[in-house]
Amino acid sequence: QIKACLFDLDGVLVDTAVYHYQAWKRLANTMGFDFTEVQNEQLKGVSRVESLNKILAWGGVTKTDTEKEELATLKNSWYVDMITKMTPAEVLPGTVEFLTAIHQAGYKLALGSASKNSATILERTQLAHFFDEIVDGNMVTKSKPDPEVFLKGASLLGFKPEECVVFEDAVAGVEAAKRGGMKAIGIGEKSVLTEADKVVSGLDKLTVKDLEEL
Ligand code: BG6
Ligand code: MG
Predict the structure, then answer these.
(1) Where is this site: Important for catalytic activity and assists the phosphoryl transfer reaction to Asp8 by balancing charge and orienting the reacting groups (predicted)?
(2) Which residues make Cβ contacts (< 8 Å) with residue 58, sequence separation at least 6?
């Protein structure tokens, strides 16, 4: 039986996935190449450093560790410029309603995000108060698809993995949930999130009943 809900942030609660994409694209363009939206799927849920490594590989570009650090910092500065202007209006449809409903139904909630910017986003969008625990990129050493971020969330909430369901828009995130022994609800397309137990287009398509039926 499900007792706790672990939420990815980017692309599940807020549409920051587009800001990540824009910032990475801009960075790739400054190096003289581009990448597609299909390739971008592989960056979702993946840490900043690992995203950069993938992008450099796509462009066939080699950089030193110092250069990589500068590039990641540059991308993040563009990204932070965008997220510091976010408002609660950018919370994805149905999010506040669904979080309120499951909270009232007695489920515990945790954030499980790879982002080091989660505090800024939760604060700007006024979502922070929903979460009993927050686990983000500042607290983990292994990037999704490693289950570390979700296992940490479950243990902080005091539940076993099988009592938890993860909400994820990323292939890597769904894999992390499954590897951790949890249920996964995919937010996006069924053809992309093939490992998820259920896939919906957004939190606006979910009710408490869906959790009881998992
Ligand atoms: C994830 C995003 O939530 O966080 C990735 O899906 C991103 O695209 C990762 O790279 C790390 O985020 P940040 O904000 O620490 O660069
Ligand atoms: Mg995501």
Answers:
(1) 113, 144
(2) 28, 33, 35, 39
Q: Given ligand 1 and candidates 20, 42, 167, which is best to mutate, with the most ligand atoms within 8 Å of its CB? A: 20
Prediction pTM value: 0.93
- 46 marked ligand binding residue: yes
SS3 143: coil
What is the per-residue pLDDT across 121-157, written as a single tens digit (0 to 9) for each?
999 999 999 999 999 999 999 999 999 999 999 999 9
pLDDT attached to residue 213: 94
- The model's pLDDT over 117-126, given as tens digits with 9 standing for 90+, comes to 999 999 999 9
Largest CA distance in the chain: 51
DSSP assignment string, 14-82 = B-THHHHHHHHHHHHHHTT----HHHHGGGTT--HHHHHHHHHHHHT----HHHHHHHHHHHHHHHHHH
Q: What is the residue-averaged pLDDT of the chain?
A: 97
Handedness of CA 202, 203, 207, 209 (dihedral sign): positive
Predicted-assembly ipTM surpassing the 0.90 threshold: yes
Within 10 angstroms of residue 181's Cβ, the number of other Cβ atoms is 15
